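Input chain follows. Return structure tokens only.
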Amino acid sequence: MAKIHSTAVISKKAHLGKDVEVGPYSVIGDNVKIGKATKILNNVTIEGCVDIGENNKIFSGAVIGSPPQDLKYKGEESFLVIGNNNIIREYVTINTGTKGNTTKIADGNLIMAYSHIAHDCEVGNRCIFANNATLAGHVSVEDEVVIGGLSAVHQFVNIGKLAIIGGCSKVVQDVPPYSTCDGHPAKVYSINSVGLKRANIAKNTIHQLKTAFKILFHSGLSFTHAAKKLEEEFKDFSPELSHLISFVKNSKRGISR
């Protein structure tokens, strides 16, 4: 049975699962669906077409499902889908997609205070956004990414799996998987060795990725030619190396140098 504070305002059209908790002065709109055991603290606003999964915790002052901050948006139906086991801290703002589109956040993420996730973004699993991390529209963040506090990511940028971005960075081009990136504008500095070890990536795979990064960033080749050289250089491709090559080859904004 849901546990709802007497001062909370909840639409009769909203759907709350078993054991959902809603704190004082929170507001939940018509088209909101909240999965079981999700906890919503005080003064939270959830509006728009929003589907929130199970066992999430949303802290004070967060605004979830507000309309996109896009001048092209004229009130058309759009969506936000949030998975399970996410922690959304104080005053986080997350927008729905633009016309007919969906903003998506997967499972197990920690989104710290005052962070912003704009329209049409896709966030993978087990990511960490430090305080005031900001995603512009149409940003894609793969699994297990760490974005430092006060960092801003330009629209349409892709951030690869297990990348880590230093605080106060200005990210204007794609960040390759398994990298450390920092600066204004952000640049790739090295492989994310600590993150790879914590993720239990095999030592030979880490060595393979280090060699790949040397070819990508220190050979003097263009990324197109460097990716081709990688395909010729290695006989056995780990899944991680295959993903890195694919990411580089498919980049549309270009890779951060």
